[in-house]
Amino acid sequence: MKKYIIFILAFVLMSAPNKAASTIEGYDVVSELSKDNITLYAKKMNGLYQDFKINFKGEVYSRPFWRNVTNPTYAPEMYYEDINKDEKKELIIILTKGYGTSVVQEEVYVYRNTNGLIDVLVDNPLAIIYKNVKTKLSTERAEISVGEKVYTVDIAPLEIPPTNLFDNVAFGSITKYEVKDNKLIVRVDCRISPAGYIGEIVIVYEYLDNMFQANSIEFQPANL
Predict the structure, then answer these.
(1) pTM of the full predicted structure?
(2) pLDDT at 18 over 50
(3) Closest of 27, 68, 74 to residue 46, by C-alpha
(4) Range list of H helices, the chain
(5) Are 155 and 140 in contact (CB under 8 A)?
(6) Which residues, 6 or more positions from 23, have their beta carbon under 8 angstroms from its beta carbon?
(7) Which of 21-25, 46-50, 197-201 has the lowest mean pLDDT?
(8) DSSP summary character for residue 158
(9) In angstroms, what CA-CA distances link 105 with 29, 38, 102, 178, 183?
(10) CA-closest candidate to residue 94, choices 37, 33, 177
(11) pLDDT tens, 107-141?
(12) In angstroms, rounded to a whole number, what is the distance separating the alpha carbons of residues 127 and 72?
């Protein structure tokens, strides 16, 4: 009987750490990849999720300065996929810093697992756009040039008073990331006035020189 009791106690003690690792006191689970044993936690403070923790396969990493809105529609997203073609998966976390009328602001974090989580730099989409995209705007049309490709958008259907037009096409009221077909993609809106949406710039990233840079840039016009 004594041996049996010792066995039961040993089993309970061995099981306890795994159960405890599934929760962190005072934190909410805000995203989870259960099959990969990856969980994202945060505290709800002042109307935002803050003070994040990543439980990556049993190891916990703190990200105290991250922020995400608490609206479930804009909950943090996680992916665990090979997006740099090295046959090893990367952890991708997408946060929403803010949202509103014609506004969604996301940011992305990418990690590789090399004796722990290591940050991988992702080139800023606005920096990519300003380096590679040229624009012109008049009261009749918007012109967007991406490399040698020139797109002309007739803005008459929007019926925007000339006094409400921007000086030029503006980018970045909406910035949304996604992982699709093992590729990191960002979509950035193009506007000619606060409500004058004319399309979006789509950037597909590739891993080059130890960071994620633009592999392709395309303008996708809206159906005006």
Answers:
(1) 0.88
(2) no
(3) 68
(4) 2-21, 125-132
(5) yes
(6) 29
(7) 21-25
(8) G
(9) 22, 24, 10, 13, 20
(10) 177
(11) 999 999 998 999 999 999 999 999 999 999 999 99
(12) 30
Give the mean model confidence (pLDDT) for residues 28-49.
Answer: 97
Q: Spell out the alpha helix ranges (H) of 73-181.
A: 125-132
- Whole-angstrom distance, CA of residue 167 vs CA of residue 182: 38
Picking from 170, 169, 199, the residue whose alpha carbon sits closest to that of residue 187 is 199
Residue tagged 């920096």 (tokens): 127
Q: To 10 degrees, the CA torsion angle through 212, 214, 216, 222?
A: 110
pLDDT at 23: 84
Burial zone of 127 (CB within 10 Å; 0-12 exposed, 13-18 middle, 19+ buried)? exposed
3-state secondary structure of 115: coil
What does DSSP assign to residue 99? E
d(CA 96, CA 42): 13
DSSP 160: -
DSSP structural state of residue 25: T
Place of tokens 């399309």: 199
CA-CA distances (angstroms) from residue 150 to 95, 100, 143, 147, 166? 33, 31, 7, 8, 20
Q: For the residues of 32-84, what is the DSSP string, one character each?
A: EEGGGTEEEEEEEETTEEEEEEEEETTEEEEEEEEEEE--GGG--EEEEE--S
